[in-house]
What does this fold into?
Amino acid sequence: MSDKVDLKALFEPKSVAVVGASSNPVKIGHKVLNNILAGGYRGEVYPVNPKGGEILGLKVYKRVVEIEGAVDLAVVVVPAPVVFDVVQDCVAAKVKFLIIITSGFSEVGNRREEKKIVDFARKHGMRVLGPNVFGMYSAKVSLNASFGPSKILPGKIAIITQSGALGGAMVGRSVVDRIGLSAIISVGNKSDLDEADLLQYLKEDEQTRVVLMYIEGIKNGGKLIKTLKSMPEDKHVVVVKSGRSKRGALAAASHTGSLAGSDNVFNGIAEQCGILRAESVDDAFNWARVLSELPTVEGDNTVIITNGGGLGVMCADACEKYGVPLMDDSVFLQRVFKDVMPEFGSARNPIDLTGEAGVEEYKVSLKKALKAKEINAVLALYCETGVFDPEGMSDMVIDMGQVYKKSKPILFSMLGGEKVEEIIDETRKKGVHVFDDVYDAASALGALYGRKRFVDEIKHSVETPDVRIDVVSIKRIISKARSEDRRFLMPDEAKEIMKLVGLTLPRWRIARSLDEAVSFAEEIGYPAVLKIVSEDIIHKTDAGGVALDLENKNEVIDAYQAIMKSCRTKFPKARIRGIEVCEMVPKGVETIVGGTLDPSFGPVVMFGLGGIYVETLKDVTFRAVPLTLNDAKKMVRGINAYPILLGVRGEKQKDIKGIVDVLLRVGKLMEKIEDVSDIEINPLMVYEYGEGVKVVDVRILLKQKGENV
Ligand code: ACO
It folds into this structure.
């Protein structure tokens, strides 16, 4: 069944009731009504207040049920204890949507009342935005049903915000920066409608080009991922996400769990869905504006044109930081720009026109860059100099900004005194993208490139991996553990599951005595490894529970005794089930592959460089399941240590394909076997290209009873 909600009557209501409308101008109920009228809403407006009378020239209804016409949307601005009564009235009047502005519900622990209201509304087919919201604006019908700023400019950017206060501030900012909005919606407590529902509408809204979201916490991440993945290529999502949290109890139970702070996971999911994560509201606005107004960038040749060498170098640094690829064909650039540069200028990107360049030289070079089809984007920098002509510069920037809009992106950055500030302000008013910092300009262009790369990858990733795992046999192993009331799978069970997902392991057996350990080592062959088997000892190496590289029988005997002594001393209460004897695998690059349940996004898979520094370096990447081939490849490419896998200082490339295969198989396990909460392959030994990978150790935990992520 489709979980898509038809939100037409919320975004394009034909009639709106304001319940709690007040004649007192300082009250929120007055402000909302006033904003609706001042904003030029094109439908019917019905103020509701038990006192009746008239407010702002409109007849006041004493109750919603008294309104003669149909009500699509009711905005509720009465105190919390009265809200349920109003909701009952709205149900009786067959209102389609409610926006509950009122605070005092789950955000202050009053969950029961919130649930009562929402359950009642939903039961009667009425949907709820809020409570605890600042309202919404929808450009389609010029509806400003909020108590935020009255003035909102219509445009192409939709804002969804979890913080009402920040939403109000963003509206104010959008007016100052002359950024037009198609909608702004505050989601508050998200008791019913959430970001994913709203995105469903905005996805199809032809006016919206970019959705800017401010998110603190996510309740139903799976639904959000699905919606984000379904966004069309030419509709972009920019997110500012705050709030970091660690997964409580289970976090300590595995490296994967403790590395899966929501921020790490969110970054991975942002990449997976092609959304752009901004660090600040400033960046988010800059990116949203550029994405909504400039043409898409068609290729990897950006040219920096500057009249100041230093500014050019800073900009080149910024381009590297924000993933803006610079054109490096200096022969071509020399040919294009030679006429416009003095002898001592430089045609190596950045194109340095030198301090002698005035408006004319600047304009000619921008025109040349526009004409050259090999150049895909321009960063035009200007420092105030002795030959500076403010008026001419302002006209030229506006002219060029307009002309470029038809073919390729141009972003300006200008540095100087008062006059330059005036130019920046004036040119921005005309819709040209002018920044006062090269880093902001490069970051905004980086957003265009970020989207381009994502769209290109999606277009070219046609392969869908056909990974099969033996679900029935895996579930049988899990049932056995459950019947013994265990969350922790024994090493033999975990390893058997690895086989059932199609992964190979070194030879191994579990010894229950010293004699067994010796005879198994003789059977498996030397060098051998001994490892403690206990569900109570999570970090085996730290407990002295691992001995590597044992060459003969005597070393096995010594190691067995040392392990037992150390583990019994450090963990006197631990249940020790034996000692695992296994083949010592040759050294390769140690990596870690994990799976865990994220509280917001459900099952996720992790990849990183392994070894003892994994939790210190946190050089890991995450993706939500199901994984595509492209997701798995990008997880591997996404770690900082990726060059090690490519081979450093003459080393051969490592078997990246093997890692990708393991990620896909672990992803399939996390996707298909709901009972698994954590899996960790640590280390996954990676050998040279063509020589594969080996699961050296694996640990699997099941969900806690009652845990439902
Ligand atoms: N039907 C219709 N109107 C009613 C009803 C009813 N059943 N009962 C009361 N009213 C009227 C009241 O008579 C009053 O009108 P009046 O001025 O003519 O007397 C009006 O509704 C409002 O009621 P008040 O008791 O005066 O409540 P007040 O306006 O002070 O506060 C409010 C109501 C704004 C909903 C408040 O309870 C509240 O929740 N404030 C916080 C809102 C908020 O911040 N939301 C989150 C936004 S996000 C952010 O962070 C900015």
User: Anything to note?
Assistant: The domain at 589-702 is CATH 3.30.470.20 (D-amino Acid Aminotransferase; Chain A, domain 1). The first strand starts at residue 15 and ends at 19. The first helix runs from residue 8 to 11. The radius of gyration is 31 Å.
